[in-house]
């Protein structure tokens, strides 16, 4: 199901956005963009790597299973159908399909509790 799906982003939960911006931007030299409010009153950051995989930084406590969260970028199909298929195979769904910055996302866990996510751009709204 995911063999041909590109990893589009790695999401990292951080405690301090300014400190994160300084480290990843000034120390590591990644181009950091402030992406504004995530609807909860927090700014979030985005950094593009040379390989095209985005790094996303959100201020919040680490989620169960920790951070980072690997995000699979769906280019076609229906995100709801993907989540339904995962659930039918016994996968633990951590968050249902919901709006995310720029589209739709859902989270699920691997057998060890590590969080994985799927993202579908807004132009490809789920059915």
From TrEMBL:
TM annotation in the entry: none
Organism: Brevundimonas staleyi
Coiled coil region boundaries: none
Residue ranges of every copy of the VOC domain listed in the record: 6-121
Matches recorded under PANTHER family: GLYOXALASE-RELATED
Protein name: VOC family protein
Highest taxon above the source species: Bacteria
């Amino acid at each position: 199901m995911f063999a041909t799906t590109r990893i589009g982003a790695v999401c990292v939960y951080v405690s301090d956005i300014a400190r994160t911006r300084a480290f990843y931007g000034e120390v590591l030299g990644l181009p950091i963009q402030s992406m504004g409010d995530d609807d909860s009153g927090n700014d979030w950051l985005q950094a593009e790597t040379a390989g095209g995989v985005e790094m996303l930084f959100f201020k919040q406590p680490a989620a169960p299973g920790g951070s980072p969260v690997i995000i699979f970028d769906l280019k076609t199909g229906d995100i709801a159908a993907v989540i339904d298929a995962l659930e039918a195979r016994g996968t633990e769904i951590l968050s249902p399909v919901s709006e995310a910055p720029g589209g739709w996302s859902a989270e699920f866990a691997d057998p060890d509790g590590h969080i994985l996510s799927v993202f579908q751009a807004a132009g490809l709204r789920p059915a």
